[in-house]
Write a structure and sequence with these properties.
Structural class: alpha+beta
Oligomer: single chain
Helix content: 40-55%
Amino acid sequence: MQRLLFQGPFLLHHYTFIFIFAIIINMNSKKKLTKAEIVDGIKRKVDIEPSVINQIINEFFVEVTDALKEGKTAELRGFGTFEVRTRKGREKARNPKTGESCSVAPHGVAVFRPGKELKEDLWDIVG
């Protein structure tokens, strides 16, 4: 059974792809897209209050984070896959801030692998 994230007519699964495609649309000429700009872009396309859009985005992040913490991958067909990879530890490492030597234990890192469609959409973009 699918878990409902909101009461009433707003369910996360209805708006997930609106959020995802808003990320890859260039909404302005800046090199960075903020969450506020994503909310504004979605607001222009669908008639939903910005606070609800923001809540949907936050819940999307929670769902992906929870899946990764449980050892799952979060696959969004056509967009990409979020997963956890293990980075091996190091006996000799250096704290870049202080220069102090330290060791680093093996640990998990979140990675994103773009999907086929996203790769194709971005293929012709040159820095």
